[in-house]
Design goal:
Layout lengths: L19 E4 L5 E3 L5 E8 L5 E8 L8 H7 L4 E6 L5 E13 L2 E13 L9 E7 L11 E5 L3 E6 L2 E6 L10 E5 L7 E6 L10 E7 L7 H15 L4 E8 L5 E6 L10 H6 L14 H15 L4 H11 L4 H23 L9 H22 L4 H9 L6 H12 L5 H14 L6 H5 L1 H19 L6 E3 L4 E3 L7 H10 L7
Antiparallel strand pairs: 1-3, 2-5, 3-4, 4-7, 5-6, 6-7, 7-16, 8-14, 8-15, 9-10, 10-11, 12-13, 13-14, 15-16, 17-18
Helix pairs in contact: 2-4, 2-5, 5-6, 6-9, 6-10, 6-12, 7-8, 10-12
Length: 493
């Protein structure tokens, strides 16, 4: 038996798209904790954060110490036992509380909400839900048929999905595409219709199926990161749903968007993407390209997880901070790739030979630093010991050289814009005005570097010329200047 509560749109989008009202007076739900409640309303606020309002009666056990009582619950976790076997568990922080005669209300920030338990034997497919999804790539159009008993099917080239619903038939999933890597089980990426909340963000799901094999947490993380890279924006996960073979919802978990409270989420979701790959109408090449990138990341000795984690977070930051993370991703990629794939040119000489040559001098240096009174001697010694290899921009130059890649004058100059916020240097008004376009140029350099290092053979999308370019082609100065001159706020007054 599935979870049939509150929201009939749970197939096409997450359960908390609309509020969930749990009544505790009818006997269907029982509180594990000794709390005198009569209902709980779970909902998402205007920033799509999880909240709840708990309404209850004041009795002699609680009195007017409601706030203290809720704060005293172990781990701030409440379990609601369900007669249908789908317990509701949530963890919270108390935001506010109020009294009215014999009634009290407690407002909570919900850390997570879980309905049901994971059942790996019954689950047939899993949908993970995301805001800030892509709106650029044209996806496949599914075909729907209505089944007897208010069932409908989504037919596609990877098999049929049978879905149960009590609501009037709707095209819940407007479009999708299929990714079939060689190293991972295939999966579907679905675009969620705009009619669902939040209205201010595009929405997507990644769907995994027993028929094709489920994925580990590490594999899901890689998929999310690769999609974020390809879409030119950070996918922000908000929960997941599990379904049985008949389309019944058997497990659901939700949480607030996992971004800092200091970040304007609506602004992030409204920003235009900067995609490394772009596809024209009816071009389905992204399915193969995404599979290729995933396979190369899985097979590579380079730690692309860390590269993509830097890159993914950079999408959520203002330009002054964004460029620092982009630079961090590029520098990590260069260093890690050189360590594992280069001909040794990243070293002035082998580390072992260097240490053997200066071993006596190292001991003498250590004693002299000690005599001088240096407090952190090992920091100085580490700098000396690391002199055998190239650092900073020299290592980046070597990385580009070994990839056979010309970084370009525009991209190269962006490095100096990175230095200012990274090292706390003074930023002039003129420099600040130019940051946005310099960040874009630096991101294009990172995009090209990632694709080149993966041995990707296709073109990349150049934001400045609005055209496809070979990976060995940098940004054209005229294209950059044309866009720069067209942006009024960049001009000095």
């Amino acid at each position: 038996m599935g979870i049939f509560i509150m929201n009939t749109n749970f197939i096409g989008w997450e359960l908390l798209e609309k509020p969930i009202n749990i009544c505790l007076l009818g006997g269907e739900y029982l509180l594990e904790n000794n709390i005198n409640l009569f209902n709980i309303i779970f909902k998402r606020n205007e920033n799509y954060e999880l909240t709840a309002i708990l309404n209850g009666f004041i009795d002699e056990n609680i009195g007017r110490k409601v706030n203290i009582f809720f704060k005293s619950i172990e781990n701030n976790k409440i379990v609601i036992k369900s007669l249908n076997g789908h317990d509701i568990t949530f963890q919270y922080n108390v935001r506010d509380y109020s009294y009215h005669q014999v009634h009290y209300a407690v407002k909570l920030d919900i850390l997570y909400l879980r309905i049901g338990e994971i059942d790996e034997e019954k689950v047939e497919w899993k949908s993970r839900w995301y805001i800030n999804g892509s709106d650029l790539i044209l996806l496949r159009n599914p075909i729907y048929t209505i089944e007897k008993g208010s069932n409908f099917k989504r037919l596609n080239d990877v098999g049929e999905l049978i879905i149960n619903t009590d609501s009037e038939f709707n095209h819940f999933v407007s479009s999708y595409f299929v990714v079939k890597p060689d190293t991972l089980n295939q999966f579907i990426v679905s675009k969620i219709p705009s009619k669902f909340n939040p209205e201010w963000s595009t929405k997507m799901s990644i769907d995994f199926f027993r028929e094709f094999g489920f994925h580990s947490k590490e594999q899901i993380n890689l998929i999310e990161n690769v999609l974020s890279f390809a879409f030119g924006r950070s996918l922000i996960d908000i929960g997941e749903s599990h379904f049985d073979k008949n389309g019944n919802l058997i497990y659901y978990k939700a949480y607030s968007p996992r971004v800092s409270h200091t970040i304007n989420l609506k602004y992030i979701c409204d920003r235009g993407p900067n995609c490394p790959l772009f596809y024209t109408f009816f071009d389905m090449g992204h399915e193969n390209d995404l599979a290729f990138i995933i396979d190369k990341c899985e097979e590579s000795n380079v730690n692309y997880y860390n590269v993509f984690n830097y890159l993914r977070e950079s999408f959520n930051l203002p330009p002054l901070s964004e460029i620092v993370l982009i630079a961090g991703a590029l520098e990590f990629l260069a260093e890690n790739w050189l360590e594992n794939n280069s001909s040794g040119k990243h070293e002035h000489m082998p580390k072992e030979d260097f240490e053997n040559l200066i071993s006596d001098e190292l001991n003498k240096c250590h004693e002299k630093f000690k005599e001088y009174g240096v407090i952190r001697i090992e920091d100085l010694m580490d700098n000396i010991k690391g002199a055998y290899e190239k650092h900073g921009s020299k290592k980046l130059d070597l990385f580009f050289d070994e990839l056979g890649m010309d970084p370009g004058k525009i991209e190269d100059s962006a490095k100096y814009y990175r230095h200012a916020p990274a090292h706390g240097k003074i930023i002039s008004l003129k420099m600040a005005r130019k940051f946005s376009l310099r960040v874009i140029s630096y991101r294009l350099l990172l995009n090209r570097s990632v694709l080149n290092s993966l041995n990707f053979k296709g073109p990349y999308w150049d934001f400045f010329s609005k055209s496809y370019k070979n990976l060995d082609e940098p940004i054209d100065k005229e294209d950059f200047n044309r866009l720069q001159d067209s942006v009024k706020f960049i001009k000095d007054v």
